[in-house]
Amino acid sequence: MKAILYIGHGTRSKQGAAEANLFTESVIKKVKHPIQQLSFLELTEPTIEQGFDSCLQEGATDITIVPLFLLAAGHIKQDIPDALAPLIEKHPNISVTMADPFGVQGRILDAIAELVTIEAEPFSLNDSILIVGRGSSDPSIQESFHSIAQGISQRLGIKEVHVCYLAAASPSFQEGLDSICEKASGRIIVIPYLLFAGLLLSEVKKEVKKKKKQVHSILLTGALGSHQVIQDIVIEKANGKENASAAASH
């Protein structure tokens, strides 16, 4: 029997965990498979092992892993496969495949442009955008964010689009925020490139609120998980409309 195991990042934030659960509950209603479970890589239960075991207890013989991750960094390339490896070894008769993370997709960039438009239209040529990524030491992440920044710039017609990171890459969020505030002649629009609320988004909100005391024309958009297109992508992955690869090979 076919099962879907969704894997979120996990968070110490109750609001973030609740958002991930609500998001997945909404997806589950639109996916055809009878066995569907949500699990988390860290900080939140159920764990990947608990979610995997739950699928087996419901009679799963074929499990598709659907990671709720925007980009392919260390968690996708290393941590999730490492967590799955002993489970796959323990249950060699269970077929396990893993869908890709979302990656840089035109429709995600369209969704971000729409979110920004709702929050900040009309735009001025003097406006600036700061995209805030989670961050990773994986160089492919910075390449991805370069593409994301270009795509947002093209869609919104704003030339000044910059990227910063909350961890493990530079410039840091604080450096990026300070720099754009010093140079901007128009409004500043801050886009957190995060799926759900959590401690990272809380940190962004706190710093933006502090900056508002000095720079009044600064706006912050919401997390990306609120947009329907993100849910649509997960539904497609769960329904097998995108290619999945053997989890053991990741």
TrEMBL record:
<dbReference type="InterPro" id="IPR002762">
    <property type="entry name" value="CbiX-like"/>
</dbReference>
<dbReference type="InterPro" id="IPR050963">
    <property type="entry name" value="Sirohydro_Cobaltochel/CbiX"/>
</dbReference>
<dbReference type="GO" id="GO:0046872">
    <property type="term" value="F:metal ion binding"/>
</dbReference>
<protein>
    <submittedName>
        <fullName>Sirohydrochlorin ferrochelatase</fullName>
    </submittedName>
</protein>
<keyword id="KW-0479">Metal-binding</keyword>
<dbReference type="GO" id="GO:0016829">
    <property type="term" value="F:lyase activity"/>
</dbReference>
<keyword id="KW-0456">Lyase</keyword>
<dbReference type="Pfam" id="PF01903">
    <property type="entry name" value="CbiX"/>
</dbReference>
